[in-house]
Amino acid sequence: MWMTFYVAVLALLRIPAYAQPGFISIDCGAEAGVNTESSIHINYVSDANFTNTGVRGTISSEISRQTQQQLSRLRRFPEGNKNCYKISVTRGSKYLIRTLFLYGNYDGQNIPPQFDLLLEANKWATVNISNASNPEFEEIIHVPSLDYVQICLVDTGHGTPFITTIEFITLKNNTYVTQYGSLKLYLRNDFGSNIIYRYPTDVYDRLWYILEPFEDWTNLSGSIPDDSLDKGDYQLRAIIMSTAVRPANDSAPLVISWEPQDETDEFYVYMHFTEIQELTTNQTRQFNIMRNGELWISNFSPRYLAVDSLYTSSSSAVSGKEIKYSLVRTGNSILPPIISALEVYTVDLQKPETFQGDVDAITSIKSVYGVKRDWQGDPCAPAAYLWDGLNCTYGDDEVPRITTCKSCYPNFYYCFIKLR
To answer: What helix, strand, coil percent values describe the chain, rounded to 5?
Structure first.
C-alpha cells in the first residue's frame, strides 16, 4: 500500500557512495554494453545478455526529468504471450529479488497495462500499473533450486507487458528462514522516520517506508552511534533503529494491526527493536507481545546499542479478518513499549519446476529444429502458461513431466524421447 512513494521521495534519500558486493542490478532497455551508475550508487548493467526478445523503449521526457537514469528506459514485449529473462545465480543462496515497472507513458497512449509476472514455475504477481508517473514493484525473498532464475512477463490481453529494472541482492542464509516457500513482501516500515531509506543505508537495499503515526502513537528519536551498534543478523543500522513509536498513553498497549487481502494468506512477521535511550538505574522498559490475543513473547526488554529482531518461526494463518499484535507494558515496567521497525511477508508457495531431464531434452530439440514458437521459461509450469504444443502431466506436489508434443515438427517427438 506504500509502494508508490518510491519516486516522490527519491530526493529525500541520504546516500553516500559505497560499492555493492552481492548485487545483480539490471537496467532493462539499456543499450548492450552500457553500464549505469545510478544516483544511489548502484551499478546497473544492460539486460541485453539476459533476454533475446522484446524492444527497447524510453519513457516520456516530462517524466524522465523527475526520475533516475536507470528508470528512464524499459523493455517492452509486444510479441509472444510469455517472454523471459534468464539470470545466473548461486544455487541454494538466498536472494531478495525486486522487479520495478515505470510506465512513464512511453508509448504516448497514456493507457497503463496490466500483465502477469512469473518467477520460475510460479505466478509471482499481477502487475497493475495505476499511474504513469509512479513505479510499481514486486519484491520476494527466494532460494533458487537451480543455478539460474527465470523471470517471465505474460501478456493477459490488457496491454503490452514491460519491465524497467531487475535487482538481486544476496542475503544471509540464516535470515528470513521459512518452513517452505518464498517470502513475498507485504509491508516494511521504519517507525518514527520521515525519510525513506534504502541502499547504502541498508546494506541489503531493503526499502524502508514511512508510516504516518496513528492518533494513539507518539514518535520517538534518539542518538545512537552507528559504530557502537550491534546490528544483529539483519544488519539494521542506527539511522533506521534510532527512531521508534510508543503509545501516546503510557499505560495503553501499542497495537499494530492490518486486514489481509485474502483470508488464506499466511504471514511471517519480523519486529526490530533497540532501546533508543540510555536508561538510568531506576528506569525499566518491559512488555509482553500478544498475537491475536495470545501471548507470543513475554517480559521483553529492548537492549541499548543492540538490535533485537523477534520473528515468527513458522507462518501464521489468518483467523478472522484482522491480524493484531499488541505490545503490552508489564507491571514491572516504568516506561511504555516501543518498536523501531517492522517487516511482514506473505508465504508464496513454490510449485515444482518441470523435470530437469525433460527441460534439457526439449531445450535441445528447440535448438536442433530452430523452433520459433513462444517457448520461454518453464515448459510446463504454471499450467496456464505451458509451452504451446506440449502436453504435461501434473500431480499434487509432483514434478511436472512432458508427455507429448502435438503439432510439432517431423520426428520431433521421437527425437525428444531419445534425448530424455
So the answer is: 10, 40, 50
